[in-house]
Amino acid sequence: MKLWKKLEVVENPPAFIESDDVCYYARDYISRGSHKDSEANQLISNFKRHPRFRGQAPWRYKQRAIEQFAAELGDVIGKNRSIAAIPSSKLPDHPEYDSRLLDTLGVLKRLRPDLVIETPLSMKASTKPSHLGGSRSIDEISFNLEWSGLSGNSQSLILIDDVLTTGAHFKACKQVIAANAPDVCVIGIFWARTVWPESQSPFEDLSNF
What we know:
By secondary structure, the protein is of the alpha/beta class. It has five helices and eight strands, in the order ββααβαββαββαβ.
């Protein structure tokens, strides 16, 4: 079975993703599920392991998840492409800052030296994560994003994140990129997309993350 799939808006669409958004995902993350409910739930649980576990035995599971995410990205991304991470909700000086996406790009660069790793966007201030009650307003998120520019003349930029839930952060990043580099095509690649039982809403507090 093919691992990476193009997101079809007509099938369980994330709330803010539209037909002109190009996004790919590898697995389904079951909202409020446990590590037993899907492979994605196990992988994402390990990938998001809190920084307080650094240096402890459970940290090796996070490292394995980072390496697996990077390897799977390396298998799907074409040669000489530009790639960046959707910024973390916390700034690097925040005690809860998690560098997992940048660490993934670091491993990816070792696996694929041809790729151009970019850091065109960063948060101006630390915020509460969306899954813990933070904003899912595209305009509010984009207002807190700072543009640093791109190093090359690439016509496309791949944005990666671990889970695609509503798509608000992807759309905010895309909005800022369009305002500053309108000729750049933005593509999203997510390790998993969230799916919900019929009784749930994507705007509920997803406190199991």
